[in-house]
């Protein structure tokens, strides 16, 4: 097994007043040639948006964009005609494809919104743009990982144009679960949302990231009450659509 550890305090940081953002991988004004991506996982931003503020209309293309709210309500509008709100317990995906414009705003004037913004390189370019969101409340499990994203529209969760699988887990202290890699050549980037865990002996704390590859499976044990996001992605950039 090979691995890479990214402690929370080593992430890039940008405070724009209305936006407080931590970047696991190089993004905008933060550039580290050693932290450009993990396989096809290109962006993992931990964003906090001030009340009533947000991202004005801006474009994307040829990227799978996943948003996972952690606190508060995020209002979304896009050039496909979607106007919706995502909140804690939801997962949103956009296939930007040939091009899309969208905006994201904190819907509330009295509290921050906190969410993860995740970009994954697609395995197909110039697809028709697509939007979807789900509530995980009907599929979540206790003390076990459960799937929220996959390459298959028929599976549980949202789907993307890439051989990627995302799982969430909420664990009581002392409980554990194992994870088996879905596809040969993939790795998993674990991001600790809350608490403290051990993955195959590596101790991890809140907002730490831990990448694992060249293995078939691993075990995760919660040493305190914890929430964890697992992002399984192809490690080879040859899987990116050309």
Question: Would you mind describing this structure in some detail?
Answer:
By secondary structure, the protein is mainly beta. It has a single domain (2-239), classed as Jelly Rolls, CATH 2.60.120.10. It contains no helices and 22 strands. The protein has strands at 2-6, 12-15, 19-23, 41-49, 54-60, 64-71, 73-78, 83-87, 90-95, 100-106, 113-120, 130-135, 146-150, 158-159, 165-171, 176-180, 186-194, 197-199, 202-204, 209-213, 217-222, 226-234. The strands form four sheets. A seven-stranded mixed β-sheet has the order 1-20-17-22-15-13-14, with no helix packed on it. The protein has a seven-stranded antiparallel β-sheet with strand order 2-3-4-11-6-9-12, with no helix packed on it. It has a four-stranded antiparallel β-sheet with strand order 5-10-7-8, with no helix packed on it. Strand 2 (12-15) and strand 3 (19-23) form a beta hairpin. The model has no long low-confidence stretch (mean pLDDT 96).
